[in-house]
Amino acid sequence: MVYKITQTKYRAFIETLILTLLILLIGFFVGYFVESARTGNVVSAYKEFEVTALDLKLQNYYYQIMDSASCERAIAQNFIFADDIYEKGLKIEKYEQANDLSEELLLEKKKYVLLKTELWLNSILLKKKCEKPFNTVVYVYSQEGDVLKKAEQDALSGILSKLKEKMGDEIILLPIAGNIGLDIVDLQLGIYGVTYLPSIIINEEQVLEGFHSVDEIEAYLK
């Protein structure tokens, strides 16, 4: 009798153990596939910009040889590109928040930052070549940081989003990771004397460090 009771308990233990292991394995594989899907979504979103990057490069060549009669159309096209990149960037940011940056994702993000930097350089070229001015607001943020840094950047990002909604086609807003390991970004930050992240570069003339209100930023716009 005692033997049967012990055997029954042992069998129940084995069945419970097997069931627990199965649940753990299922949870592991589900988590793995969900994470892989998220990573795939981020990579796909970044890769969509590769053709755009080539397009921007060709536009840069065109801007260098065009005459002033083409300025209005060129500026309008530059704004279309800028707004499209900004809107898609907001979606990518949501994906990033749910994923740690793997080496693959970091490489794709570097390509994306290069794309936005090229758009910034195109905008500078257009402002120098054309008489019609427009505003560029480059938000340079830190890729890494503690809780306080993240809170500061989240608040500033929200302020700049409100500014973009308010001013629309009057400004080009470009969020750029400033410490992601790209020489061209380091060069630009050195040119404008940016030593603190986050900072805002307004019209390549004014650098505002840290958090600022909409009114404070707007005061420097044309």
Mind sketching the topology for me?
Layout: H1 2-47, H2 49-65, H3 71-97, H4 103-129, E1 135-141, H5 147-167, E2 171-177, H6 183-191, E3 199-202, E4 206-209, H7 214-218
Parallel strand pairs: 1-2
Antiparallel strand pairs: 1-3, 3-4
Describe, in plain words, how this protein is organized in 3D.
This protein is α+β, with helices and mostly antiparallel strands. It folds into two domains: 1-133; 135-222, Glutaredoxin. It is built from seven helices and four strands. It has helices at 2-47, 49-65, 71-97, 103-129, 147-167, 183-191, 214-218; strands at 135-141, 171-177, 199-202, 206-209. A four-stranded mixed β-sheet has the order 2-1-3-4, with helices on both faces. The radius of gyration is 25 Å and the shape is elongated. The termini are far apart. Mean pLDDT is 80; it is low at 29-34.
